[in-house]
Design brief:
This protein has helices at residues 19-32, 50-58, 72-85, 102-116, 131-142, 151-154, 160-169, 176-180, 247-260, 285-301, 304-323, 329-341, 372-375, 388-411; strands at residues 10-14, 35-42, 66-70, 120-122, 147-149, 185-188, 193-196, 226-233, 236-240, 243-244, 265-271, 277-283, 347-354, 357-364. Strand 6 and strand 7 (193-196) form a beta hairpin. It contains 14 helices and 14 strands. 42% of the residues lie in helices and 19% in strands. The strands form 3 sheets. Strands 3-2-1-4-5 form a 5-stranded parallel β-sheet, with helices on both faces. Strands 10-9-8-13-14 form a 5-stranded antiparallel β-sheet.
């Protein structure tokens, strides 16, 4: 049967190969009567993607309509690194690992829709989360007239049992663990992994150790610190310990270093864009190292005014990414400002990793603004007359003195 009021001939589905998106694939075929094109993104989630292609074939998708795209380099180069130039953190802690992947998925999905002549796109995000917003804002920003199908907001399934019954009726393979459901849901890419739901829903209960998949426990990390150097050019990391690496390769290596030293764990209750609070356990080992190192690089290369301005606009920039406005004009305007600030953020940072901690222990740059002669307690070569500070202080104190005088008069 065809979905009432809908006329969809071909739809591009964001397809993971898991049970939920497999059910969605078959549902699109039966409910809409549409030709389905599957798109599976390799964002470095660490899973074998071959089975997704095999399952799509099993479910009747034509070979020419199956797209498995390796987006790892593009993801890190064009999305993760630009975000880290801003030292982006949402609500003081979250490094936006899930949020930053959504615009690239949406963009590639629209590219494929144009390529195959599809008139609709479909995602598997639920009606309670942020991802539905992020995907759809991306779709509409890039293709304003595209038809968007969001099954979790449309279909009639009222329970997990109804979904499994539909899967069995259409011979969709169901693994035993799916029948019993996983104890929590996981989203992963090259930047992070996030775990939510089920055993994690009570924010007063500590997350079980088995939830963590990207890091060892800090108490189990080596008793000796690991020291590395990170080279930056215009705000982006380009080498570890002198070895030049591609963006994806560099983040992969940072992830391993963070994993081995218990770096990057976060247990967070965040405010979703749709209005509710959500508890998640996030792991961003490479990102935690990169954030600290980038701030260390900026500390000697960025002017005070520029640095403080960046810190002021960062929460706004973070919210735009979290809420799905990557393709908005205001995000692009902020990005231009941020990128301008990075012109001299070039040099090397030395980082110590130890039992969950990331410590900056050295930084050098040919564009350093740090002048040892100015800050030394000894006589420097550069003229700095300490007596000049008296006038500086008196001028800055002027309004405070005027206020105090007025208050004294009023009290009298």
């Amino acid at each position: 049967m065809t979905k009432a009021g809908a006329s969809v001939k071909k739809v591009v589905l964001a397809y993971s190969g898991g049970l939920d998106t497999s059910i969605i694939l078959k549902w699109l075929q039966t409910e809409y009567g549409a030709e389905v094109v599957t798109f599976t993104a390799d964002l470095g989630q660490g899973e074998e993607l071959g089975p997704a292609k095999d399952k799509a074939l099993l479910l009747g998708v034509k070979p020419e309509n199956i797209f498995v795209e390796d987006l790892r380099e593009e993801f890190v180069r064009d999305y993760v690194f630009p975000m880290f130039r801003a030292n982006t953190v949402y609500e003081g802690q979250y490094l936006l690992g899930t949020s930053i992947a959504r615009p690239l998925i949406a963009k590639t999905q629209i590219d494929i829709a144009r390529k195959v002549g599809a008139d609709a796109v479909c995602h598997g995000a639920t009606g309670k989360g942020n991802d539905q917003v992020r995907f759809e804002l991306g779709y509409y920003a890039l293709e304003p007239d595209i038809h968007v199908i969001a099954p979790w907001r449309e279909w009639e399934f009222k329970s997990r049992e109804a979904l499994l019954a539909f899967a069995e009726a259409h011979q969709i393979p169901i693994s035993k663990d799916k029948r019993n459901e996983a104890p929590f849901s996981v989203d992963a890419n090259l930047l992070h992994s996030s775990s939510e739901g089920k055993v994690l829903e009570d924010p007063s209960v500590e997350a079980p150790e088995y939830v963590h998949m990207r890091t060892i426990a800090p108490e189990d990390a080596p008793d000796q610190p690991t020291v590395i150097t990170l080279d930056f050019v215009h705000g982006d990391p380009v080498a570890i310990d002198g070895e030049a690496l591609s963006p994806a390769s560099l983040l992969t290596k940072l992830n391993q270093l963070g994993h081995d030293n218990g770096v990057g764990r976060l247990d967070l209750v965040e405010n979703r864009f749709v209005g509710m609070k959500s508890r998640g356990v996030y792991e961003t080992p490479g990102g935690a190292i990169l954030l600290a190192a980038h701030r260390g690089m900026e500390s000697i290369t960025l002017d005070r005014g520029a640095g403080h301005l960046k810190d002021e606009i960062m929460p706004r920039y973070a919210s735009l990414i979290y809420n799905g406005f990557w393709f908005s004009p205001e995000r692009e305007m902020l990005q231009a400002l941020i990128d301008k600030s990075q012109e001299s953020v070039t040099g090397q940072v030395r980082v110590k990793l130890y039992k969950g901690n990331v410590t900056i222990i050295g930084r050098t740059s040919p564009y350093s603004l740090y002048d040892q002669d100015l800050v030394t307690f000894e006589e420097g070569k550069v003229a700095y007359d300490q007596r000049d500070a008296a006038g500086f202080i008196r001028l800055n104190a002027l309004r405070l003195r005027v206020l105090a005088q007025r208050d004294r008069r009023s009290a009298g």
